[in-house]
Write a structure and sequence with these properties.
The chain is an alpha/beta fold. It has 14 helices and 12 strands. The radius of gyration is 24 Å and the shape is elongated.
Length: 353
């Protein structure tokens, strides 16, 4: 019996080593033989967990630094100046009211700038008064958008910016539960009801993965579990009910945090000698009356989803143009009327017919 047990243990160990060679070996033989197994969905429980993205990265190594270099807080950024987050198009918008657009790749666009949101606005009659600075970054979740808002809005607080946060609800909310998505990223957790931030730090993607490998203790056991194919987590409409309440609570906390950025933390009236200061009552933790700062009306930051325009048969250009005009006078208490579906019913071309 002892010899049999030792033999089984040795077979298991050798099988585990052989499987890891097929999965992660860098030689041509390992890549060719292991190709059918190098599918992230065979090893991760769902695309909403870190292991899926870690395995995808290990199977398909990409650039080390991210789209425009690693950032120790944001994870990755675009062509913004690190640290100050100066936008390359700021110079062209100096004499106009800035429209700051935050979001993921649906905001950044995969088209040329002329065919993206900033190009559409620039060709409209609104271009004489406003200029859109596109701070959309591919792959961002609501957590990274929140951090970017907090770092960018102070640059423009004295110019009374219009702030648009474009959220693709299907993906951007769930990304808040990840600490890795192609590259290391920041992650918020709720601790005693408060948001606590864990940043990726310096060192690059490879070094981060060496410190934080996939949390799969045995690839042999995981393969046997998934022998029939990908897990339920990859089925359309599936959700992890065991963590649903926790994820919702985190997402609500992030939405509350990003809603409060413009009118609670940074106000045009607090610029003194070129330095931006937070309002005294914001520093003390109290809340201002939403929507007002002195005698100037400040539209509270709200969450819109331009990516869902087409889902409700709304022309994105017509929608964006109307909302940018309407937002200056629209009551903050009825901001839900500016989401694409409600806007279509109340203000769209068909509603006037």
């Amino acid at each position: 019996m002892l010899a049999f047990a030792i033999g089984c243990a040795l077979v298991g160990i050798l099988g585990e080593l052989a499987l890891r060679w097929l999965l992660f070996g860098e030689g041509q033989a390992a890549r060719e033989l292991g190709k059918p197994l190098r599918v992230p969905s065979y090893w991760a429980r769902s695309p909403d967990e870190d292991d899926y993205w870690k395995m995808l990265r290990l199977f398909s190594p990409g650039d080390e630094a991210g789209p425009h270099g690693p950032d120790p807080t944001m994870g990755w950024i675009r062509e913004f100046v690190p640290g100050t987050f100066e936008h390359p198009d700021e110079g062209a918008a100096l004499r106009r009211r800035p429209v700051l657009l935050f979001g993921d790749s649906f905001s950044q666009c995969t088209t040329s700038a002329d065919d993206c949101w900033q190009g559409l606005l620039e060709r409209s009659d609104l271009a004489t008064d406003v200029a859109l600075l596109n701070y959309g970054v591919g792959g961002y979740g609501l957590d990274q958008m929140t951090l970017l808002c907090e770092r960018v809005i102070p640059r423009f607080a004295s110019r009374d910016p219009i702030v648009v946060l474009a959220v693709l609800v299907d993906d951007d909310l769930e990304r808040c539960s990840l600490s890795f998505r192609g590259h290391p990223k920041p992650r918020f957790r709720l601790e005693a009801g408060a948001l606590a931030l864990q940043t990726p730090g310096d060192g690059g993607t490879t070094a981060w993965l060496e410190r934080n490998p996939p949390s799969i203790p045995s690839y042999v056991i995981r393969l046997l579990e998934n022998v029939s194919g990908p897990r339920d987590g990859f089925e359309p409409g599936w959700t992890d009910e065991s963590t649903l309440a926790e994820r919702k609570e985190l997402q609500r906390a992030l939405l509350d945090r990003v809603r409060n950025v413009p009118y609670e933390r940074f106000q045009p009236s607090n610029r003194q000698d070129g330095a931006l200061r937070a309002p005294r009552d914001a520093q003390q933790g109290s809340r201002r009356t939403p929507g007002w700062a002195g005698d100037r009306r400040i539209m509270r930051l709200e969450v819109l989803s331009p990516g869902s325009c087409r889902l409700v048969d709304v022309d994105p250009y017509v929608y964006l143009r109307d909302v940018l005009v309407r937002v200056a006078t629209h009551p903050a208490s009825r901001v839900d009327e500016l989401t694409p579906d409600r806007w279509k019913m109340l203000f769209g071309p068909q509603s006037a017919a």
